[in-house]
Amino acid sequence: MHEIVVLSGKGGTGKTSVSAAIATVASQEVVIADCDVDAANMHLLLHPENFKEQVFMSGKLAVVEDDLCIQCGKCVDICRFDAISQKPNTLNINSFDCEGCGYCTRICPTGAIKMKDRRSGLLFHAVTRLKQPMVHARLDAGADNSGKLVAKVKEDARMLAQNHQIPFILVDGAPGIGCPVASSLAGANIVLLVTEPTKSAIHDLKRLVVLIKRSRLKMMCLINKYDLDPELTMQLEDYLEKEQILIVGKLAFNHAVPRAMAAAKTIAEVSEAYRVRFENIWDKLKGVLTS
Amino acid sequence: MKIAFTSTGKDLEAQIDPRFGRTAFFVLLDTETTELEVIDNSAIQEEAHGAGTATAQLLFKLKPDVLITGNGPGETAAKVLKKSAIRIFVEAHQMSLRDALKHFENGDLREV
Amino acid sequence: MTDSQPNRIAVASGKGGTGKTLVSTHLAHTLSQSKDCVLVDLDVEEPNAHLFYEQANPTFEMPVFKQIPDWQSNICTRCGQCAEICAYHAVVQLGEMIMVLDELCHSCYACSELCPVEALPMKNHEIGSLSSLQHENLTIFTGKLRLGEEQAVPLIKKSIALSNQEIKDQTYIIYDSPPGTSCPVVAAVGNANLVLLITEPTPFGLNDLKIAIETMRQMDKPLAVILNRDGIGNDEVEQYCDVNNIPLIAKIPYNEDIARNYAQGKLSNEVPQMADAMKAVEEYIQKIQFHHA
Predict the structure, then answer these.
(1) Domain count of chain A?
(2) What is the pLDDT of residues A99-136, one digit of tens each?
(3) Residue A44 — φ and ψ, nearest 5°?
(4) How many whole angstroms from its chain centre is CA C35?
(5) Checking CA distances to C261, which of A140, C14, C111, C123 falls within 20 to 30 Å?
(6) Using one digit for the tens of pLDDT, what is the confidence trace for B47-94?
(7) Quick one: A190 exposed, middle or buried, by C-beta within 10 A (0-12, 13-18, 19+)?
């Protein structure tokens, strides 16, 4: 089983659009894992039909039992997250601020505060319109994207791949360089970077590459909207060459792409020419993975 | 020699659990007596944070000479394990514990 | 609006790359033409706003710390309570040794203050930096997470607190938030009294906008929507805002000059479409009543 993770550092460079296009040409050779749980969008293009839905719990939340609380205020004083405030005859715990450390439960003289499991989102097992198994999730508003949900999405995708004997897992990774990205990378075999010639995107890409190099993973890169700024594209190419990251393809900005998206189609479905280009990219990725 | 495997099950026929921090079980094999000991680590699934370091702390207590696993411990768990003398061998994905042991004995597993 | 309280405007979006930094930098530029203005870049994993102000004068850069326990082996009785207490497994007991994993620590102080012999006093640990630039009436603060640090929230909170100390009598504070709807965003928009949500006219944009609106409503934040790259997709976002009575206050058309300037780290305030959009936002901001907590 081989795992391809698509990452970008900066959002909006086309990571999900590219992932979905690869999914289109890879067809039933892949299981899809949407690990961008904070802004999951693959489902908008791949129209999965969910056959299993699961509530996902992660972390803890302090809850007060008013009957036991004697209003001593100790918990209010010790909470470093300012999550607890005293109200007449009750305590208010702000669930957005509580980080689940449990200090309050240990300091409370009457045992009035308990730590409860916190719901953080929903996890789905599904089949896409291209008849691929897919695992995707939705983080609740303001929930802690600790990477645990990302890890769970990947774990379930591996299980589906094993059960259906599917050789590849395609992971739409999380943006940024934080914890969810580290979870997206765990157990991966290759990283496909999607970037664009803007100062912001290049700045973020460089930070991401430093992070990925630590796990010694092989990287490839796709430059999106390369015609936006030829000079920055050249800078980008020089940088990638210096880092020995192979460029698997370059895409020009094309109004047909957002229009296709609006019609829930992937880039590979825009035209035969695009399809062929993504087939080439997919072949290159497979070639590296299976060599 | 005492060998610890990250395992999905409780005997040598079980598959290696590729995960370190969130491994379901540790199976400990004493190569002299061929005795097996099984440690259930499944409660770790409920932990949102620090599964790797919690599991590393557990392994530290078990004092094996060798760990055989799949992906290898993450960065923080690796920091903890560095404080021990445990030698870590990885990439035993999709092998039974028995196969992984064979690969280890033949020197086919990568040490980190 | 009270005179002493600055208006705090967070610029956020459900998904990355919709134009948060584009709007933050242009809005800051527009507002600073008449009033003193502060821009705080809280996208600490990937701060980019400063790229648009290379000509501005750096005024300071300081390290940002979080507090972590510092094990005193000579005092410690090896009772192991700290390792048992830590909800994040940032403190582990390894035989005779206590080890602190600084990247996992949330600075809750539980281990430190509950240690029976005070063997875990807290100490500073550097997690990133806060730097400042000055360009005419505009002050720009940039929070930047150190590579390998995984928690953005402590740095966001510290960046807000430290920039508050530096803020004197500016009228507007703009927070360029991290993308998404999880805890870093909650931390970033926490003390804003208006949230501007940036989106684009595509199914991705609409889907992420809906989630962002839900989050802001749960936090009880007044919000308004700005549509970026208008014209590239469909009109579902407009319809959605219309049907749900959500103020859509400005549209920035897709424009190659704006895109090219952005790519090169240049502002587009001279481009008429951008100037019009920013004027609409400025008028909206001047018109509404800000509620100060």
Answers:
(1) 2
(2) 999 999 999 999 999 999 999 899 999 999 999 999 99
(3) -70, -25
(4) 22
(5) C14
(6) 878 889 999 999 999 999 999 998 788 888 999 999 999 999 988 877
(7) middle
Both A249 and A149 in one domain: the answer is yes
**Are residue A154 and residue A274 in the same domain, yes or no?**
yes
Is C48's CB within 8 Å of A60's CB? no
End-to-end Cα spacing for chain A:
13
Same-domain check for residues A24 and A163: yes
Neighbours of A273 (CB within 10 A): 7
Domain containing A179 equals 2-47+128-290
Q: CB contact, 8 Å: A183 with chain C?
A: no
Nearest beta carbon to residue C90 from set B47, B50, B51: B50
Asked if C151 and C133 count as a contact pair (C-beta separation under 8 A), the reply is no
Question: Which of C9-23, C177-191, C279-293 has the highest mean predicted lDDT (pLDDT)?
Answer: C9-23
Residue among A58, A186, A214 minimizing CB distance to B48: A58
The minimal CB distance from C208 to the residues A39, A78, A232 is found for: A39
State whether residue A66 is helix, strand or coil.
Answer: coil
CB of A57 less than 8 A from some CB of B? yes
User: Cα(B75)–Cα(B21) distance, rounded to whole angstroms?
Assistant: 11
State the count of interchain CB pairs (< 8 A) between A and C: 167
Q: Give chain B positions within 8 Å (CB) of A214.
A: 75
Amino acid in the structure at residue A141? A
Domains of chain B in sequence order: 2-111 (3.30.420.130)
Let me know whether A95 and A219 are in one domain.
Answer: no
Contact assignment for A262 to C233 by CB distance below 8 Å:
yes
Q: What type of residue sits at position A166?
A: I
Cβ-based neighbours of A53, under 8 Å, separated by 6 or more: A122, A123, A124
> In this structure, are A140 and A211 located in the same domain?
yes
**Tokens, residue B65:** 């000479």
Domain at A20, CATH number = 3.40.50.300
Question: Touching A: which chains, 3+ CB pairs < 8 A?
Answer: B, C
Matching residue, tokens 């390792």: C83
How many CB atoms neighbour CB C229 within 10 A?
23
Judge whether C182 is closer than 8 Å to chain A, CB to CB.
yes
